[in-house]
Design goal:
Helices cover 76% and strands 3% of the residues. The chain is an all-alpha fold. It has two domains: 130 residues, Four Helix Bundle (Hemerythrin (Met), subunit A); 146 residues, no CATH class. The strands form two sheets. Strands 1-2 form a two-stranded antiparallel ribbon. The chain has a two-stranded antiparallel ribbon with strand order 3-4. A hairpin with a 2-residue loop joins β1 and β2. α6 runs antiparallel to α7.
């Protein structure tokens, strides 16, 4: 996509995201009263980034020719950028109920890189518009499920670091500035339940709307997504019945995330980036 107005908005958004990540790290590390004001500014900055980047993401997703949309561009860079935008939106919404600023610190630079990448990439993998309604429903449900599980996985990583920090009795540094372990665990469990619900909807719509869901080109995606769903099912039952928590619980979430990651973008990365198909 050539440098134009929409690309410029993506670049500005990316620079803002990098600044927000650095500001979040410093605010958590300092653990002082002004941090609350910094986090408020960051919340509004996320909203600004979502507005600025929306134009660029839409332009990348819907390339035009002869004054009409050619189709939905599902190339790897554009898919990652769109997914990053969804994750940012979900993170922004999550701020209403949960303390997830440490998650944002990781997500912001990832989104920044994806926005930069899509401005420099001209790859297109078009899906015809006239065939898109059932597919579109499945795609957006999948993006939301993946976005929620990404946020949950990052939270799980911080839960692991926080528990190890407590066991080592360290009272200084960045990890010590995170919320209490019990609070972080509670958020992780709630997010994992939400991820499970949306992943279930994604799989159901795939089974209902996609006739070729078990075709060779999609079989591995379906298989890995179902495995991720099963892991989340076992984890949620184990948490409910056996009281699984802490590092062991976080590992179940990370395993489910890795499976969904490979199923969601693994093959696209291999075919489009490594093999250039």
């Amino acid at each position: 996509m050539p440098i134009n107005y929409s690309s410029l908005l993506l670049i500005v958004s990316a620079l803002l995201l990098l600044a927000m990540s650095a500001a979040t790290f410093l605010a958590i590390r300092q653990r002082k009263a002004p941090s609350a004001n910094i986090f408020t500014i960051i919340k509004f900055a996320v909203i600004a980034v979502l507005v600025f980047s929306a134009t660029g993401i839409f332009a990348a997703l819907t390339p035009t020719g002869e004054n009409q949309i050619l189709g939905l561009n599902m190339s790897f860079p554009v898919t990652i950028a769109a997914c990053s935008w969804i994750i940012l939106l979900l993170t922004c919404i999550s701020f209403r109920w949960w303390q997830l600023h440490q998650v944002g610190m990781v997500i912001y630079p990832f989104a920044a890189v994806s926005f930069f990448w899509v401005t420099q990439n001209h790859m297109q993998r078009l899906v015809p518009i006239e065939q898109i309604w059932p597919l579109e429903a499945h795609i957006w449900l999948s993006l939301i499920a993946y976005g929620l599980l990404t946020i949950t996985a990052v939270q799980a990583i911080f839960v692991i670091f926080r528990e190890r920090n407590l066991k080592s009795h360290k009272t200084s540094g960045f990890i010590a500035g995170l919320p209490a372990l019990t609070v972080m665990e509670k958020v992780m469990f709630q997010l994992s339940a939400l991820s499970y619900i949306w992943l279930t909807l994604s799989l159901v719509t795939g089974l209902l709307f996609l006739e070729n869901i078990f075709q060779q080109s999609l079989a591995h995606k379906t298989f890995l997504s179902i495995l991720a769903w099963l892991l989340l099912s076992i984890f949620l039952i184990g948490h409910r019945v056996k009281g699984w928590r802490g590092i062991n619980a976080a590992r179940w979430i990370l395993c489910a995330f890795v499976l969904l990651l490979f199923g969601f973008v693994g093959s696209k990365f291999v075919y489009e980036i490594l093999l250039n198909f």
